[in-house]
Amino acid sequence: MAEGFRVLVTGGSGLVGKALERAVxxxxxxxxxxxxxxxxxxxxxxxxxxxxxxxxKHKPTHVVHLAAMVGGLFRNLQYNLDFLRNNLHxxxxxxxxxxxxxxxxxxxxxxxxxxxxxxxxxxDETMIHxxxxxxxxxxxxxxxxxxxxxxxxxxxxxxxxxxxxxxxNVFGPDxxxxxxxxxxxxxxxxxxxxxxxxxxxxxxxxxxxxxxxFIYSMDLARLIVWVLLKYEEVEPIILxxxxxxxxxxxxxxxxxxxxxxxxxxxxxxxxxxxxQYKKTASNAKLRKYLPDFSFTPFDQAVxxxxxxxxxxxxxxxx
Length: 318
Ligand code: NAP
Ligand code: GDP
Description:
There is one protein chain. With 318 residues, this protein is an alpha/beta fold. The chain has helices at 15-26, 48-58, 73-78, 80-100, 138-158, 184-198, 217-230, 249-259, 284-289, 298-311; strands at residues 6-10, 34-37, 62-65, 105-109, 163-167, 169-171, 202-205, 211-212, 214-216, 237-239, 247-248, 266-269. It has a 6-stranded parallel sheet with strand order 2-1-3-4-5-10, with helices on both faces. Helix 5 (138-158) links the parallel strand 4 and strand 5 (163-167). Helix 1 (15-26) packs across helix 7 and helix 8 packs across helix 10 (298-311). The longest helix is centred in the first third of the chain and has 21 residues, at 80-100. The site of guanosine-5'-diphosphate (GDP) has 22 residues, from helix 3, helix 6 and strand 7. Keywords: Isomerase, NADP, Oxidoreductase. Belongs to the NAD(P)-dependent epimerase/dehydratase family. Fucose synthase subfamily. This is GDP-L-fucose synthase.
């Protein structure tokens, strides 16, 4: 069945793309596939001409569309317009070139942070468009929401089955550990590294009270392979640990301190924004399909990420 599969992975050099690369090299299910992992050096996907050339060159049968302008709360607060425009262009170019090239299946990536801010919990797949997103990242959120709209339109007008996944906060090796731009977990790993080295406190931004669900990039990568091979719906699917596994930012700081073997003081800078308080998502749909899928325990995944960062400090994105 796998013979002849040519899978183009946009965003192949990022956190999720690198994890997918590791996962497919370990997976017997992917034997016989040709995987093409792309970075922005191969093409700027905001350009339709460059995107079309990629599809002509590689002639993919399947696409995993991970490329995006991505960042943590503080980068989103500053660049909502860029998040909106860059992601709108990339998404339309990739989906429409895939459509023109006759690609059978496209799996694109949304995020739980695009859901309505004022909502009931837990959030599920039917609620994406039920109200405005949190104002901190409205540019990213509306661009991502339109991926779902566009998938539905390709199905309605042309019968094409493009779909999307909705991961919660992701972390792991090859993340963006830049403190100003990146997400909370890699940011705290980098800060803990510096605090341990300099004998200074670990400074957590905000109150530490907001709550998040985290998925380890290696678990997400195994789920993406399953989605590509087995999931047939056009409607999105949330890829998340359970509601009971939601943790506070303070819990994250403590897990990172343990993972980095940091025993100094942890302090909270409450002058910094907390962002969205929570976005608790239900993984009931995923559990219906995969009741036995086993997630890596959070503390173990954080420790592996810390070890990766220390080992790769000189070349890590930071
Ligand atoms: P990442 O580490 O920042 O990687 C982004 C990827 O996109 C890189 O490969 C980058 O290429 C590529 N890219 C960016 N702009 C591009 C452009 N103009 N043309 C071509 N390629 C471009 O991001 P990630 O965390 O792996 O995110 C992957 C997907 O998961 C994204 O769709 C994101 O929205 C989604 N997601 C992420 C999280 C999270 O917590 N990280 C949570 C939910 C959903 P270069 O390496 O060459 O720059
Ligand atoms: P979000 O989950 O989409 O809101 O984005 P982030 O991954 O950036 O997480 C933001 C939450 O973590 C907010 O409550 C921040 O106040 C808190 N936080 C604490 N320390 C940091 C840090 O060093 N970097 C980032 N990005 N957020 C931090």
